[in-house]
Amino acid sequence: MSRRVYLLGAGLTLVALALAFTDRALTQPVGPMEAKTKCIRPGMTLEEVETVIGKIEGTFALPDERSGRRLTDREGLKAFLNDPSRMKTGMSLARGEVGGVIAIHFREDGRVARAEWWPGGHPPEESGLLARLRAWLGW
Predict the structure, then answer these.
(1) DSSP-assigned letter for residue 40
(2) Residue 16 and residue 70: Cα distance in Å, rounded?
(3) Is residue 80 domain-shared with residue 50, that is, in the same domain?
(4) Taking a C-beta distance cutoff of 8 angstroms, is the pair 113, 90 a contact?
């Protein structure tokens, strides 16, 4: 009886190791920017985000009550995020990287609400049983 129990335990251990090895082999490695995106936490400021992903450069389109949108540089973006009278609905910032896009969503107070990694440059499509049901029902 004890030999059978020993062999059963050894067999289950080998099956578990095989499953763990298969999962590790089939999982895609996390890229450096995807890993950095996971380090961005809710409540961070723009300056704290820049310490994680690097300096954000370029021209930004900000919401404007008079003209709809206005273009600004990095300093204008910082001023916009730090001015609670102008941030009425929050805003999102997308930065293209190798392999995808980092999307950073800011709350009305100018702090991060959430950060997402979009592989391939666009938001991932919803998948699963509920998504198929919604598509089938036309919702």
Answers:
(1) -
(2) 57
(3) yes
(4) yes
How many distinct structural domains can be found in the chain? Answer: 2
pLDDT (0 to 100) of residue 29: 65
d(Cα 60, Cα 43) in Å, to the nearest integer? 21
Tell me: do 25 and 73 sit in the same domain: no
Burial of 47 from C-beta contacts in 10 A (0-12 / 13-18 / 19+): exposed
The pLDDT assigned to 124 comes to 67
- Both 16 and 57 in a single domain? no
Give the residue numbers spanning the domain of 104. 31-137
Mean pLDDT computed over every residue of the chain: 81
Mean pLDDT of 26-49: 84
24 and 76 share one domain? no
CA distance 107 to 89: 7
Q: What is the CA radius of gyration of the chain?
A: 23
- Runs of H (alpha helix) within 1-139: 2-26, 32-38, 46-53, 74-81, 129-137
Residue 117 has pLDDT above 70, yes or no: yes
